[in-house]
Amino acid sequence: MDLGLRGRRAIVTGATRGIGRAISDLLAAEGADIAFCARNNAAVKERVKELTSEGVRAFGAAVDVGDGPAYRAWLEAVARDLGGVDIFIANASAGAGTEGEAAWEANFRVDLMHSVRGCEALLPHLARSDGGAVVFVTTIAAIETFFSPTAYGALKAALITYGKQLGQAVAGHGIRINMVSPGPVLFPGGDWDRVRRERPEVFAEVEGQCALGRMATPEEVARAVVFLASPAAGAITGSNLVIDAGFTKRVQF
Ligand SMILES: NC(=O)c1ccc[n+]([C@@H]2O[C@H](COP(=O)([O-])OP(=O)(O)OC[C@H]3O[C@@H](n4cnc5c(N)ncnc54)[C@H](OP(=O)(O)O)[C@@H]3O)[C@@H](O)[C@H]2O)c1
Q1: Does residue 129 form part of some domain?
Q2: What is the pLDDT of residues 200-225, one digit of tens each?
Q3: Distance 172 CA to ligand 1 centre (A)
Q4: Cys bridge to 3: 19, 101, 133, 230, which one at CB 3.0-4.6 A?
Q5: In this structure, what are the phi and psi dihedrals at residue 216, rounded to the nearest 5 degrees?
């Protein structure tokens, strides 16, 4: 299947590790030009080299998406560098590891508001594309009880609601908005790799709840994200695709 991504212009937040790294790798392999950010400048520079070796244009910058003004300025600059924007993938997260009010503040600023600010800044660009598409990377912690109650799960749930409603509002401009909710994703250096080393009993319990008997990989999540962002998914908007190796048990309507 041709995804129709050659020459498309994509912005991905948080693309130096894990799921964002796999998304940007796949977009580059499909021939899309990419602008991405993360906070660690050395890792960004390394990623630019890796992505340009695929023969596409890659623009990387050390930007904290939680810093509203700096983030907006970067989005406008890369929209110019790319010569327009067809795809926006909001992937960066403050994670689930913080507690108390600090967690609510961090997940609000990073998970929710960087996605909202990204859409506000990029919708005019996406409307000029013949296939504008947005994907929010959320989590199953937004849709099912997952250990303790967290700001992370609650604010990702807010993001899913926002994405669905935004999809209705901008459909007339030809822009599609979709969400992908991963379950536990295992990769070297990631959160679940750390849990596997430090709390093997918790890892075994969570892995045991995955009906497929294992956690998902970043590449498996990336394939869903990139498909939803591509013209091949031209009639899909407002959906939330769960990629969790069978972790969640609810019936999805
Ligand atoms: N891993 C899982 O099991 C899992 C499960 C469900 C959902 N998810 C979701 O999937 C997405 C990616 O998760 P992941 O596990 O791949 O994360 P990760 O391994 O921690 O990587 C996160 C990426 O985002 C960047 N980043 C983090 N905070 C940032 C900020 N404030 N500004 C700019 N860049 C930032 C990181 O680089 P720097 O640190 O250099 O900034 C890195 O490139 C998140 O939205 C997460 O909620 C993950």
Answers
A1: yes
A2: 999 999 999 999 999 999 999 999 99
A3: 31
A4: 230
A5: -75, 165
For residue 93, give the amino acid letter: S
pLDDT score, position 220 = 98
Q: Is residue 222 part of a domain?
A: yes
The single-letter DSSP state of residue 252 is P
- pLDDT value at position 252? 84
4 domain-assigned: no
The verdict on residue 245 lying in a domain is no
CA of 55 to the centre of ligand 1 (A): 25
**Considering the entire predicted model, what is its pTM?**
0.98
Number of domains the chain contains: 1
Can you name the residues that pair with 89 across neighbouring β-strands? 12, 135
What separation in angstroms does the CA of 181 have from each of 19, 31, 34, 141? 12, 25, 22, 8
- Structural domain harbouring 102: 9-240
Among 41, 158, 179, 165, which Cα is nearest to 109's? 158
91 lines ligand 1 (CB under 6 A): yes
